[in-house]
Amino acid sequence: MRHHLDALYRLLTPDAPPAYWLMGSDDLPKELILPSAAFTGRNLDIAYRAWLESAGRWRGRSAVIVLDDSGVRNALRDGIPAETNFAGQLRLASEIHQVLATAIHEIAHVAELGIDTSEAPDVKYEQVVAAMAVCRAETKTARYPKQDRHSPVWLRLVVHAWHRATKAHYTVTPENIFPDRLGPTPKIANAILALHPELDALLNVPLMELCHVPAASAFVEMWKFKLSSWRKRQLNEDAEADRIVAEYLQLLDAHTTTAAPIKLPTRGVA
Prior knowledge:
- The protein has two domains: 2-140, no CATH class; 144-257, no CATH class.
- The protein has 270 residues and is mainly alpha-helical.
- It starts with a helix and ends in a 13-residue tail after the last helix.
- The protein is built from ten helices and three strands; from the N terminus they run αββαβαααααααα.
- Helix 1 (2-12) crosses helix 4 and helix 4 (86-113) packs across helix 6.
- The protein has a three-stranded mixed sheet, with helices on both faces.
């Protein structure tokens, strides 16, 4: 499975150093796991450096993507006979499809956050564990969890990533990449329609440089409508909802009216 993920990553980010794909089947330290099917973060390689070194896999700084491959692993462990068990073949194909969809989701986060290749700071393992504990707590207690809301920058990137993967004959259902949720992020199907005019036109622009190119106006209007309707459904006095709307409107403005790169948060995302 890992070589398929490497190939997909090279396709979508050909100029980036190879990513570290860490699987649930890798027996990762429990204290470094977040409650998510997959997650990444700009500095996640620092968190996992000691583990990667002990596994003989450290080759310098790059993106780390942690992915729960339990479905595929269990299907393979069951020893599905390829010639006789059609239902088993369908199940395995479905699991692999979901892994690839999740991978596209996370690769778009890597493109959103960027890759830090500067010299790694001297961080104690206890500090890493403490930081991951904070992330776990935020995931469980946040009123508007990050997994339910993804930024305008990410949504545009993931649509372009999906389109480029389909051009290379990957068959991935968009809704498996980002299922419809109750948060402020528009449906991925609507984003595909809004971005349709630019998908082929910007094929040769690297994902990490798309923020230098103004987005299609339909995409901007779609977001503004969704943010407005989502905010109306929240409490009248809701500072967190106001902050989210303001943050996303600011990102939309930076993403569509200037050629300057957008400053993005560096914390982990799912």
